Amino acid sequence: MCHVIVTCRSMLWTLLSIVVAFAELIAFMSADWLIGKAKPSSPEEVDNRTGGSQEPYRPTLGIYGRCTRISHMQFSRRDTLCGPYAENFSEIASGFWQATAIFLAMGIMILCTVAFVSVFTMCVQSIMKKSIFNVCGLLQGIAGLFLILGLILYPAGWGCQKAINYCGPYASAYKLGDCSLGWAFYTAIGGTVLTFICAVFSAQAEIATSSDKVQEEIEEGKNLICLL
């Protein structure tokens, strides 16, 4: 018989697992890893209201995507164009970024799998006498290691030609040059920290769902068990 067991700690772990997976996925897909050096407006880019030039803009560069501004001369307006600059894996700008993409993708795949499984832990707490919480916690720890490797390798690619085009001639491995780090990089770091927190907290979720109080309610014949 399936017993639906909901505790404060298990629900918190489930929600945090889902948030971490989505945060890492969004960061990976974003082009806002590097914010390039400011580029001056071209003569045709004139503000119709003030007659002056628009503010300089800063293009952004991701692991495999980028955002830049294109001008429509006849309409004197600007559009921001975002999309992948690499049509396939081999066209990613740096070998280090290729390695970063592999490690991050592996970590995110594991996190998304755990997030999917975590939803069902309310009904199923063990498989083959192994606690799902402990197995998921172990997988989250492994995913965290993959994410760390990816984030360590990413700055080593700042010396590639693509990064130099965005960050100026002084950009090199682990040196930003004229660039600054975007929100996607910080989100990936924050998600990595939360991944390890999830891995540790999974043990608390397992303890909460196998406590004596839960066993007492199961023995009383309750199918829905909610505990703080």
Could you please describe the fold and organization of this structure?
This protein is 49% helix and 15% strand. Strand 6 (126-127) and strand 7 form a beta hairpin. The chain has a 5-stranded antiparallel sheet with strand order 5-4-3-2-8. A two-stranded parallel ribbon has the order 1-9. By secondary structure, it is an alpha+beta fold. It has 6 helices and 9 strands; from the N terminus they run E-H-E-E-E-E-H-E-E-H-H-E-H-H-E. It has helices spanning 8-29, 95-119, 132-153, 161-167, 183-209, 212-219, and strands spanning 4-7, 34-35, 60-61, 65-72, 77-84, 126-127, 130-131, 180-181, 224-227. It is found in: Membrane.
Give the name of the CATH architecture: Up-down Bundle
| Main beta-sheet strand count, sense and barrel state | 5 strands, antiparallel
Series of H and E elements: EHEEEEHEEHHEHHE
The level-1 CATH class: Mainly Alpha
Q: How many individual domains?
A: 1
Radius of gyration, Cα only, in angstroms? 24 Å
